[in-house]
Amino acid sequence: MIVSLRNLVDCWSEVVRSREEASGPVLLFVALDDCDAIATAMSVMGLLKADLVRYEVVPVVDHVQLADRFKEMAKPAEPRSAVCINCGGRVDLERLLSLETVEDEALKVFVLDSSRPFHLNNIESTRVQLFDDAVEPVDQSSLPLCGYEDAYGFVEVEMEEESAGSDVEEAEDDVVFGSDIEYESEANEMDGIHGRSKSKKRHSSRKKEKTKKRARQQVEVDSDMRRRAYDYYSSCHVATPSALVSYLLSMDLKKENPTLLWLATVGIADHFIFGKSTNESYEESASLLKGQLERFYNEQEAQTGSKPYDSNSQSLRSSLDAGEVIQHVDEPRLELLRHWNLFDAVLYSTYMCSKLSTWRQTGRRRVLEFLASLGKSLPN
């Protein structure tokens, strides 16, 4: 089942208050392959702490380990609920986690995953709740039917097309056979055999042709539905960072704070640096967080009576803990500049490497010319 942004609060109440009779914690299964998942886990942990809910973090590296750890902890821990962070959205969780074998049918799995598309069985399941970044609910009638894919969303199309071709050939052979029957019946009539046998055989051949026609139509419909499912699972993309979705949830719960804002910033930066989001989506998300940052600054100014910004720049600042600040600044796309010198950062950073082709001799010369135009000293 897909949960839109408008229904996040109701879904979160199920995470916190579902199965209150259970003595176990909320299980947080966190993928370890990106920073967005870790930032989202910290955000969810902060929200659970605010609601005084016990939780347990379970790091996983793949879906096989996710299934193994869930089966190990589901029964002895008696968890209140399970939350999958940046994992589980694209696989059939009911089949993978064997939810039908879990004795307590009230146990639900909540998925906060930025990978798309969602597995169709997860969308139709009542025990799996998918946090979505869409404002309006998804029209499920526009989605293909489930049942053509395996647990990991793989759809076999080539084998189906071959079987469809063989069915068409069999149908054509049946049609030829039917024409032979008509020819034989006409010959029998000419030989003086009963004309009633001719009409019966014609009726039988027409009935067979209609049956074959319906079979061919069913094969074509089934092939078309399989193709739609294949196209659905082939459109792999990354949606809004999960850390940003968790921050939007905190806003709806009236529990946002600068720490959660910083974690959301880490999530959108992770997607932007590694090319998971476009420039437009990053600018839209950054603009939203910048507005939230200014709101925190205004609240701090109203409380302390002093302006919480750096007098040496126009960038606003706000304290998280002692000695920690959030500052909105424009930086060059040189992710290695913080850890290396300028020349090597330009030479090996992903963005500049793709733009200047720095693996070639001409690209290396462009880097030297670029540094010279900035007035920087060239390396020896």
Report the count of strand segments. 10
**Largest sheet geometry:** 6 strands, parallel
Roughly what percent helix?
40-55%
Point out poorly predicted stretches: 174-185, 310-319
Could you write a compact summary of the structure shown?
With 380 residues, the protein is of the alpha/beta class. It has helices spanning 8-17, 35-50, 63-77, 93-96, 120-124, 158-190, 195-234, 242-252, 258-273, 279-304, 342-348, 350-356, 361-373; strands at 2-3, 26-31, 55-60, 81-85, 109-112, 115-116, 128-131, 237-238, 317-319, 325-327. It is built from 13 helices and 10 strands.
Secondary structure layout plus pairing:
Blueprint (H helix, E strand, L loop, with lengths): L1 E2 L4 H10 L8 E6 L3 H16 L4 E6 L2 H15 L3 E5 L7 H4 L12 E4 L2 E2 L3 H5 L3 E4 L26 H33 L4 H40 L2 E2 L3 H11 L5 H16 L5 H26 L12 E3 L5 E3 L14 H7 L1 H7 L4 H13 L7
Helix pairs in contact: 2-8, 2-9, 6-7, 8-9, 9-10
